[in-house]
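Incident log, support desk, overnight shift.

02:14 A customer reports that sequence design results differ from what the structure should imply. Their input is reproduced verbatim below. On-call engineer (initials T.W.) acknowledged and began investigating.
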């Protein structure tokens, strides 16, 4: 049985709201091997991503911060998605997720192989929300690369409190 598109959108919206209300892995990670901070000056979202890495595999990923529902849900689902992945697999996941939410010409039937993360596919229709959905992912990428500067969703805009 296939759900009508409006029912599917409602289901996706409910999943995002659920991850906002009860985010997974939202906590400081004692003994983290890597950490990065992100900031979206457009709406004030702030996030820190923590990783425990064993060899080249992410053993644990958590986040802290405050943000809108899309930002929080994206961080929650991202930490679930990268758990147990190699650093290269996490980079590839970043690329596929980023491509999905930034390509507004993609058809709804285009396969992304992102599983539950596909709930964010509609974000591409709202450019201001793309930055909310991708902030955690850019911060994850910075943590993987062990970057020290604050990740900003705006080119050339740094965190005034960094």
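02:41 Re-run completed on a clean worker. Output:
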């Amino acid at each position: 049985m296939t759900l009508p598109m409006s029912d599917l959108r409602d289901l996706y919206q409910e999943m995002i709201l659920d991850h906002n209300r009860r985010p997974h892995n939202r906590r400081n990670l004692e003994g983290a091997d890597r950490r990065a901070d992100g900031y979206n000056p457009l709406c004030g979202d702030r996030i820190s991503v923590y990783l425990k890495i064993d060899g080249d595999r992410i053993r644990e990923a958590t986040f802290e911060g405050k943000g809108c529902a899309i930002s929080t849900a994206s961080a929650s689902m991202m930490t679930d998605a990268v758990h147990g992945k190699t650093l290269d697999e996490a980079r590839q996941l970043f690329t596929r997720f980023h491509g999905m939410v930034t390509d507004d010409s993609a058809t709804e039937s285009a396969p992304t192989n992102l599983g539950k993360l596909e709930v964010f596919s509609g974000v591409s229709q709202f450019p201001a929300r793309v930055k909310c959905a991708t902030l955690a992912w850019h911060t994850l990428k910075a943590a993987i690369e062990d970057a020290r500067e604050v990740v900003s969703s705006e080119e050339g805009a740094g965190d005034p409190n960094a």
